[in-house]
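User: Hi! I have a protein structure encoded as tokens and I'd like to know what sequence might fold into it. I'm fairly new to this, so please keep things simple.
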């Protein structure tokens, strides 16, 4: 996949002014920092080696100036830390909302394949790291590039040969960094997949906690979890190994540069081509040149983490829902409810066998139909084709004579109600769960729907009646009670096709 540069930067757009202000502050802070060694040089070279009777007064002045610079630096850093992070957090919020909205649009065939825990990991961890890159990345580049270039220019004017000697190390350091970047990218990507697996395992084990307990299989779940947890550890160990090589390699380069400066600088003093004050300044500025390179390692890790997070984000964003609206899809007028299957064949995936083959069936409005057959023969599958949870492989499904593929999805599904075999209720109150069938319904309508579903009596016996909390997935209700609520939910929707 080519890296979508335009898309990557598009998330800055709403916060451009704030972001640019933070960048400007980062630049000012760096520029101010560069002044300090120059002031030290001025004191050691010009003030203390000049007329000592006026020296102290001048030192006080310079000290005062340094204080002012410190204040500017701190205000700038405060703005960068606070507003810079805010920009990153806002972008992260936007992307998370976009990703969640996109996931909601993806078809069931996508969820058949993906693990919920993995998806949760993408939407939480990955974006967190990406937001770090979004605000720290450019800030760090501006900050350290300004320091690096500033220090290089100043050092060049102080002593060109010594500066060039230092500079000669940098291409090697660059090549070294590039080599490890690739390794780290791979390692960080693997880490993300592994933590996703851990999440998926937690999600699976905890969702099925009742089954786990009924089989007294806690040890099995612990074993499965530990397997994933250890795989994550192994993956992180590999990352740390690569990082340790990388960080220490860079450290060695830095020490080599410092030693070179000390030796060459001392030799230059002996040869009278450099003054001691200049060597001190040199050593002070060397840090300004080295620090960006030192940070480069951190920045490249941050960069890799952010970029892999973005790539994983785009992998989902680039997925098109398998079932989509056609251009100019029809919004249904009043629906009578005639359903026709015309020589329908269906398989869940290309490599799987057909579940339905050449099936034809017509259901008249007002007709009740029961499909009877062995388990797994395709009864649920057949029902799933009417609201287009999946599209037929061959043939067509018609609602009131219109191919369901030509109907606007929202309009189609608004006219169909389904009580699933596996009842799913949301955490919340009884009232909220029934209202899910029609968010605009009044309390009276909800109570009527509950009465029709034979749920009113048991609801009234709950401690808070319709306002009773039913727990995660309705755990506080019996199986039959859950089914009645889900029937009430569909009655409230009152669709032409049930
Ligand atoms: N999401 C899916 N992906 C792949 N295969 C599936 C999927 N859902 C169902 N199947 C397969 O399709 C076949 C038909 O399943 P379906 O759920 O329609 O059966 P059913 O007749 O409703 O069974 P039951 O009476 O047991 O509920 C089964 O062999 C099943 O394994």
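Assistant: Happy to help. Inverse folding works backwards from shape to sequence: for each of the 498 positions I chose a residue that suits the local structure. Here it is:
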């Amino acid at each position: 996949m080519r890296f979508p540069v335009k898309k990557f930067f598009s998330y800055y757009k709403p916060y451009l002014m704030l972001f640019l202000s933070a960048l400007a502050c980062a630049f000012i802070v760096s520029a101010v920092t560069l002044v300090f060694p120059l002031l030290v040089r001025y004191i050691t070279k010009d003030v203390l080696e000049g007329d000592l009777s006026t020296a102290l007064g001048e030192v006080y002045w310079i000290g005062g100036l340094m204080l002012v610079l410190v204040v500017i630096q701190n205000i700038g850093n405060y703005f960068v830390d606070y507003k810079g992070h805010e920009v990153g957090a806002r972008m992260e919020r936007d992307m998370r909302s976009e990703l969640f909205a996109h996931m909601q649009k993806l078809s069931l065939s996508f969820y058949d394949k993906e693990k919920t825990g993995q998806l949760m990991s993408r939407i939480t961890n990955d974006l967190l790291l990406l937001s770090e890159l979004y605000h720290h990345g450019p800030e760090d580049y501006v900050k350290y590039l300004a320091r690096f270039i500033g220090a290089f220019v100043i050092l060049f004017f102080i002593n060109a040969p010594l500066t060039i000697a230092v500079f000669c190390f940098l291409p090697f350091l660059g090549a070294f960094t590039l080599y490890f970047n690739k390794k780290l990218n791979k390692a960080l990507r693997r880490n993300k997949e592994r933590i996703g697996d851990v999440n998926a395992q937690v999600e699976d084990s905890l969702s099925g906690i009742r089954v786990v307990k009924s089989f007294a299989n806690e040890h099995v779940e612990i074993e499965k979890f530990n397997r994933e947890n250890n795989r994550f550890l192994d993956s992180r160990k590999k990352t740390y190994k690569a990082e340790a090589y990388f960080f220490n390699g860079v450290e060695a380069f830095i020490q080599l540069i410092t030693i070179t400066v000390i030796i060459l600088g001392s030799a230059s003093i002996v040869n009278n081509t450099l003054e001691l004050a200049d060597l001190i300044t040199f050593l002070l500025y060397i840090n300004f040149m080295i620090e960006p390179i030192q940070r480069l390692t951190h920045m490249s890790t941050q960069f890799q983490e952010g970029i892999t997070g973005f790539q994983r984000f785009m992998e989902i964003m680039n997925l098109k829902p398998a079932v989509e609206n056609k251009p100019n899809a029809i919004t249904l007028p009043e629906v009578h409810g005639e359903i026709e299957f015309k020589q329908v064949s269906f398989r869940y995936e290309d490599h799987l066998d057909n579940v339905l083959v050449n099936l034809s069936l017509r259901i008249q409005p007002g007709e009740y139909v029961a499909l009877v057959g062995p388990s797994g023969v395709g009864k649920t599958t057949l029902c799933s084709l009417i609201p287009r949870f999946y599209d037929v492989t061959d043939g067509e499904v018609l609602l009131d004579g219109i191919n369901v593929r030509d109907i606007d999805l929202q309009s189609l599904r608004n006219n169909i109600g389904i009580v699933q075999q596996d009842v799913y209720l949301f955490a919340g109150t009884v009232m909220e769960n029934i209202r899910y069938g029609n968010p605009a319904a009044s309390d009276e309508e909800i109570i009527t729907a509950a009465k029709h579903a034979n749920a009113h009596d048991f609801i009234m016996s709950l401690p808070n009646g319709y306002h009773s909390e039913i727990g995660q997935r309705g755990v506080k209700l019996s199986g039959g009670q859950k089914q009645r609520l889900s029937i009430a939910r569909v009655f409230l929707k009152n669709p032409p096709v049930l």
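A useful reference point when you look it over: Residues 172 and 268 are 25 Å apart (CA to CA). Feel free to ask if any position seems puzzling.
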